[in-house]
């Protein structure tokens, strides 16, 4: 019986929250001129024959606003960690001091800041697309229920519910993007 149809909006919300969380993780990897341990999260080190996150081969610290340090636990991995950072494309030049790798974070110039805001906008657009795909999934469930005798009024109600949910998450993406772009452009 389709009269008992109820769209699982909690599931849609949870999945849209996942898209927002993914966006925030991508934003955390963008370098804003301030030191952050999270900027190293996407970097993998070839340790013991498999790709390993940096935070699993050493301790990542931020002792001052423009410096990140990594205290590598295994002396044999220090050069591999340094190589992984150099090849990561972060534009940071690691400095070695025994098992400690220091990463001075240079000041961003205006051109690089503008490039980073464009990258942030791309990340946000990917998130919007994910949310719209989830909206489409919800709408498909409603259309399937309509084929199983869901009334037009109920269909309109559920479609409006899904659209309102989508709009609220799209506005969250826009707010998050505006905040990140302001942070990037801040000198």
Automatic annotation (TrEMBL):
<dbReference type="InterPro" id="IPR002661">
    <property type="entry name" value="Ribosome_recyc_fac"/>
</dbReference>
<feature type="domain" description="Ribosome recycling factor">
    <location>
        <begin position="23"/>
        <end position="185"/>
    </location>
</feature>
<comment type="function">
    <text>Responsible for the release of ribosomes from messenger RNA at the termination of protein biosynthesis. May increase the efficiency of translation by recycling ribosomes from one round of translation to another.</text>
</comment>
<dbReference type="InterPro" id="IPR036191">
    <property type="entry name" value="RRF_sf"/>
</dbReference>
<comment type="similarity">
    <text>Belongs to the RRF family.</text>
</comment>
<keyword id="KW-0963">Cytoplasm</keyword>
<dbReference type="InterPro" id="IPR023584">
    <property type="entry name" value="Ribosome_recyc_fac_dom"/>
</dbReference>
<protein>
    <recommendedName>
        <fullName>Ribosome-recycling factor</fullName>
    </recommendedName>
</protein>
<dbReference type="Pfam" id="PF01765">
    <property type="entry name" value="RRF"/>
</dbReference>
<keyword id="KW-0648">Protein biosynthesis</keyword>
<dbReference type="GO" id="GO:0002184">
    <property type="term" value="P:cytoplasmic translational termination"/>
</dbReference>
<dbReference type="GO" id="GO:0005829">
    <property type="term" value="C:cytosol"/>
</dbReference>
<dbReference type="GO" id="GO:0043023">
    <property type="term" value="F:ribosomal large subunit binding"/>
</dbReference>
